[in-house]
Write a structure and sequence with these properties.
Number of domains: 2
Order of helices and strands: HHEEEHEHHHHEHHEHHHHEHHHHHEH
Helix content: 55-70%
Radius of gyration: 28 Å
Oligomer: single chain
Largest sheet: 6 strands, mixed
Strand order of the largest sheet: 5-4-3-2-1-6
Length: 511
Amino acid sequence: MTTNELIIFKKDTDAPGSNRGFVYQYLKTLLLWLENYNRNKTNIIYCEVEDDIKEINLMEQTVRFTQLKCYSSALNINSEEIKKSFYNYFLLHLIYEGYAGEYVFETNTHISNRDTVIENWMEQQGNLSANQEIQRLCVSKTREILLEVFVKEKESMEKAIQKKIDARHEKIKDTTLQSGEVLIEIEKLDKELEVLQNLSVTFEGKIDDDAIMEDFTNRIKWIFESIDAVQSIEVLKEQAKDALRTLSTDEKRVDLYFGRLLTEINFKAIKEKREQRFLDNNLLKEILSETDDVIRSGIDKAVLKQFDILGIKIDQGFSEVNQNISESEDRIRQDIDSLEERLVHQLQSTSDDAEYDLFEMPRVEPEEVERFIKHENNEDQSKLEMKFHKIEGIDEESRNNLLQTATELRCRYLLYLQRLTFQNFHREYDEIKKLEKKVENICNDAVLELQMDSQITSGGFYLNFKKELKLATDEFNALVKIKKFIVDLDVVHGQMFHMAAKCFLRWHRER
């Protein structure tokens, strides 16, 4: 089971918190950031990526995920929030199997008096094998929770796909138009359902594996601070201020740093691209070297206002900050027209080194390709093989190499579409399908051209056609750069081989 396959079972946990939870999470992130900096740790912190906090060290191959909860009531092992965290953590454990992982559930509150599982677990956490009875208890409870959540998630996804299938069957009944396209859609959805069911069997096998479960439960860490929800915010604020005082003895500057760093954490957490939501020592060093004026201009009042909502007083220099922010806002309003003009100009004259989303197909293992072909009963693959067999003017070794590449690209493309659907990447899916229609038109024209040109060989036509697709891809990417994405050429080649397997594209003349 690959990383991409696992992701279809994963809930979106990237949504930011609000009010007390928002403040609690950002203060915890700030403390971790300062701790890494003060101890010269080279870890990179990600905000709102795969969990509340993701801390990774690529050199040491370690990763630490933290789920943060600020509650006014006690928690126990059967709390829904803990169940969701377990499920998410288990997926991350499988996805990051090459890393030494740690999965932290951290909260201000305390353990429920009715709960003995977490209490015993905490006593042995990190070393569960030292007490076999407690380890068996933890593994058993973890397995029970994972299966409970997984069954619900699987049923939900199956119902969603089945609902689409049923809707298309109804469409066939009601429409007077040709139903060929609808039948193709139904066939694709049936395959999606089959893939989901096959992946589910593999996933349940992971849950049943004692070695995996023992390793996973031993990597879970519990932190219950047993502090009142309101008080916990004040405590964290003071801890952050104390950490900042190690960097400056000027109390006003400590307050400036506090506001500026919280703003930066918020700024990173709401970045559209997940890979940009990171904090590291270099960024902190850069901020600490800013002048007071630059720091003030980088403080967002909306972030600090969350403290006001909670009744936490932020003073000692912040009146001056607020005044400077107001002045900055006035200057921004005065310059907004010229800013818009610059943005429009920038869009119109997009440079080659601008920042784009790259729509590309994930790598797949040979075993995945074989499984995919088996699931489609080899029908489409046999058509593709037949077409390569009929290409003239190439030796058998070259023919086999071309066929192997074509097979991989075709299957990668179809798996790519499935995963975009499973992961609800609607924008990317829609754009790729639009491109597929363009490639389809190019393919249809090419078939006519081959029929009309009696001089060109099938091998020469194949090579020229691929060059035409490369030019078409470059033209397409030049047009869509304004949408801030470009498409990898492999996607287009995958589309081409998919169409060849569906029969309406060929590189040979029928005799």
